[in-house]
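We treat protein structure as text, and this decision shapes the records that our systems exchange. We quote a single record here, exactly as it is kept in our systems:
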Amino acid sequence: MTQPYADTGTPINTLSERIALSNEWHARPLLTLPSPLRCSHMVCLRGDTSLEERRQDFADFCESQGQSGPSKESRHHSVNVGNCLLKWEGHTEADSYTLLVAGNGEPPFAAPAISFLDASMRSRLMDQLFLGVHIEVIPCTDSPEESRLQRVRALLGRQEVYGGSISDNQGEIWSSFRLDAEGFSRIVIMDCALSEARLSRQVQRILEVETYRMLAMLGLPAARDVMGTLGELEPALDEVIEQIAHRDADPALELSLGRITRIAAKVEHVAAAHAYRFAASRAYNGIVERRVAELSEQQQGSAPRYTTFLQKTLMPAMRTCEAAERRTQELAQRVTRATQLLDSMVDMDQKKQNQAILESLAERANLQLRLQQSVEGFSIFAITYYAVGLLGYLFKSAKSLGLGINPDLLTGITAPVVLAIVWLSVRSIKNRLKR
């Protein structure tokens, strides 16, 4: 029976898909060489180039060296090129190239592993270089710690070096965290009693620490840009809120609503534009922290530890990214609250205006009713007047015919009766209309 993915519901119904998932457990195999050795590690940001294009570039290089290239779906591939063991690995937003060469240069770092690479490939990597690391794995001498420390300083060309023992004192790691003339940082690993497999794992961890700490640092320029933008938006928001708080001085709430809407749009743009960068920095920093813990570095002599310096440098940068992200979210929440408040105030004003309109309409209706009642009263008297006048003509005609009546007396007697009849008729008509 096929089982769906938990998040997408896509069925895993082919053998190739199941094999691909199983192979993820064996992805990114370690490069192994016995000590001593030298290693060059280059990371190139992908930018507008796709993973497929980088994979094809590496496949073309392998073909030019008479080697098989990576498969169409592969994200890593290792080949032997002359004296080099070369590995390409495709990451989410970068590609890494790692070279291992047996033995050390004389002196160490004089002939790094990248110097054994094809000139055209080496030139292409240097043009795209984002991060470069040279590692020299050298035998550990039995000299005192301070003597080994002086040797490390000589190899790295710096008095200020950072390092300590790793793998239960079976090895040591040292670096100055400074770049050489070609933009590579240099790391010395002293092999005191490391097995080939353990050495490979430690080299891999160090390379991952160096790679992901620099990728994590990509969030720092973005955080500084965000801080600068928010520094402009926050005073603008404060000004709008102050106008809302003293709305008598600025009754144009619609204008304030327009301003705060533009601020909200800018805040959302900032949040959306940098959300991926900050999330990626968090993920990279998490990998660095795990790899640092796995190194289990211990203090060695009087020099500060490699991992201590790394964490002291990386932590403030990550805190800056977290602060920028948190500040953006807080500003977005403030804008939302201010918008809701302003919407409520505009709605209240509209309700007041509607209430005033309704009161005006009610007053007009009341006046119209009074006018109508007055007109009805005049109408009753007018109808009565004309009716009595008609009766008066009838009474005068009857007197002219010889009937012994007094027209004026009869007219005066019938006038109240006619008035009552007209009034009752009008009232009856009004009652029927109300039903």
Observations:
- Confidence is low (pLDDT under 50) at residues 1-8.
